[in-house]
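Hi R.,

Here's the chain you asked about this morning:
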Amino acid sequence: MDLYRDVFDGYASRYAPNLWLERVPDSLEDAAAFLKDKSRWR
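And the predicted structure, written out as C-alpha coordinates:
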Protein backbone atom coordinates (compact mmCIF):
# COMPACT_ATOMS: atom_id res chain seq x y z
CA MET A 1 0.00 0.00 0.00
CA ASP A 2 2.81 2.41 0.72
CA LEU A 3 3.78 2.33 -2.94
CA TYR A 4 0.40 3.82 -3.94
CA ARG A 5 -0.18 6.07 -0.91
CA ASP A 6 0.47 9.34 -2.83
CA VAL A 7 -1.98 8.33 -5.55
CA PHE A 8 -4.74 7.37 -3.10
CA ASP A 9 -4.23 10.49 -0.97
CA GLY A 10 -4.57 12.71 -4.03
CA TYR A 11 -7.79 11.08 -5.25
CA ALA A 12 -11.06 13.00 -5.05
CA SER A 13 -14.34 11.31 -5.94
CA ARG A 14 -16.10 12.70 -8.99
CA TYR A 15 -19.15 13.89 -7.06
CA ALA A 16 -19.51 15.18 -3.53
CA PRO A 17 -20.94 12.82 -0.91
CA ASN A 18 -24.69 13.06 -0.23
CA LEU A 19 -25.31 14.71 -3.59
CA TRP A 20 -28.73 13.05 -3.89
CA LEU A 21 -29.81 14.02 -0.39
CA GLU A 22 -32.00 16.94 -1.48
CA ARG A 23 -33.39 15.57 -4.71
CA VAL A 24 -33.57 12.21 -6.48
CA PRO A 25 -33.95 12.38 -10.27
CA ASP A 26 -36.91 10.74 -11.98
CA SER A 27 -35.08 9.55 -15.09
CA LEU A 28 -31.63 8.98 -16.52
CA GLU A 29 -31.93 12.16 -18.57
CA ASP A 30 -32.92 14.11 -15.47
CA ALA A 31 -29.92 12.69 -13.60
CA ALA A 32 -27.55 13.63 -16.44
CA ALA A 33 -28.87 17.20 -16.48
CA PHE A 34 -28.56 17.42 -12.68
CA LEU A 35 -24.97 16.12 -12.67
CA LYS A 36 -23.82 18.19 -15.64
CA ASP A 37 -22.23 20.98 -13.56
CA LYS A 38 -21.62 19.13 -10.28
CA SER A 39 -18.50 17.15 -11.16
CA ARG A 40 -15.37 17.92 -9.15
CA TRP A 41 -13.19 16.56 -11.96
CA ARG A 42 -12.26 19.34 -14.33
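Residues 5 and 16 are 22 Å apart (CA to CA).

Let me know if you need anything else.
M.
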